[in-house]
């Protein structure tokens, strides 16, 4: 079994120097320390996690902040992120949070109390001091699906993607297009902005009564939103839903009301969650690159933890409009 003397011999240094590095002591220059740590990693001298953490002065634990009411897209995303973090040797702690000040404060206190190497935010935070506190603690931080100034972030161009979705409906002859969005988050607003910009560019009159804002981005609230739109006005031929989960609720209510998709109403979603390709009819939607989004998020945090700035600001990933059976040319 390899020991400190063996490590010292291989690097050409004294056992006491190696011992100081192993025990996390100072007074060893950076070049020597890195050389010793590299050999320790290569030889497996520190096989257990607790000792490895002591030597490298890292916890190998990453915190992931997620909403307490997450939808299928978010569930798929943090599963992919977690898998990639595991491949880098980290284990994860999940921090559930509501979109309100008290919950954000409680979550921040929990993050501060844990020994974390870094944090990934899948939930946008309303209070800017939340981000500033984490910066002050010098904790590596990455955001996914949204951006915040000065913090590495990975996302798609939400507004343009929404414009493309609505333009697809316009291209099929639809002019009376309703929208169901969610509330509280920047990406929701960006998707609504894209909806309005596509209509305006096509010379279609803007009507705010055609837009409903759901409390959450779930199928249940998609149903509530669709029922609200039906009460307001039944004169429409298409629906743009801000997420696939909302679209699932929309299609359920349309069926209950005897309206056929796409013969009577065309429906477009956003995200391309796994079930979208198996629905009846299969859902036309904007595909976010889930695999790449999860991989790049984990990689960006890993590089930040290692001190490699790599991604300094934001990485905007490509999206794709996936045309399936839920949309058709207007009769």
Structure description:
The chain has 331 residues and is of the alpha/beta class. The protein folds into three domains: 4-56, 434 Repressor (Amino-terminal Domain) (Orthogonal Bundle), CATH 1.10.260; 61-156 and 290-317, 3-Layer(aba) Sandwich (Rossmann fold), CATH 3.40.50.2300; 158-287, Rossmann fold, CATH 3.40.50. Helix content is 45%, strand content 17%. It contains twelve helices and twelve strands. It has helices at 4-11, 15-22, 30-43, 49-56, 72-87, 101-113, 128-136, 158-171, 186-201, 219-232, 244-256, 290-305; strands at 61-67, 91-97, 118-121, 141-144, 153-156, 177-182, 211-214, 238-241, 266-271, 284-287, 314-317, 320-322. The strands form two sheets. A six-stranded parallel sheet has the order 2-1-3-4-5-11, sandwiched between helices. A six-stranded mixed sheet has the order 7-6-8-9-10-12, with helices on both faces. Strand 3, helix 7 (128-136) and strand 4 (141-144) form a beta-alpha-beta unit. The longest helix is centred in the N-terminal third of the chain and has 16 residues, at 72-87. The protein is elongated, with a radius of gyration of 25 Å. The mean pLDDT is 87.
Shape: elongated
Helix-strand pattern: HHHHEHEHEHEEHEHEHEHEEHEE
CATH architecture of the largest domain: 3-Layer(aba) Sandwich
Q: Low-confidence runs (pLDDT<50, min 5 residues)? A: none
Assign a percent range to the helix content.
Answer: 40-55%
Tell me the number of structural domains. Answer: 3
Which range does the strand content fall in? 15-25%
Multimerization state: single chain
Roughly how many Å apart are the termini? 78 Å
Taking Cα atoms only, what radius of gyration do you get, to the nearest Å?
A: 25 Å
Identify the strand order in the major beta sheet: 2-1-3-4-5-11
Highest CATH level, the class of the largest domain: Alpha Beta
The helix-and-strand class reads alpha/beta
Question: Could you report the average pLDDT, rounded to the nearest whole number?
Answer: 87
CATH homology superfamily name of the largest domain: Response regulator
The count of strands amounts to 12
CATH fold-level name of the largest domain: Rossmann fold
Task: Characterize the main sheet.
Answer: 6 strands, parallel
Question: Helical stretch count?
Answer: 12
Domain HTH cro/C1-type: 5-46
InterPro entries: Cro/C1-type_HTH (IPR001387), HTH_LacI (IPR000843), LacI/GalR-like_sensor (IPR046335), Lambda_DNA-bd_dom_sf (IPR010982), Peripla_BP_I (IPR028082)
Pfam families: LacI (PF00356), Peripla_BP_3 (PF13377)
Keywords: DNA-binding, Transcription, Transcription regulation
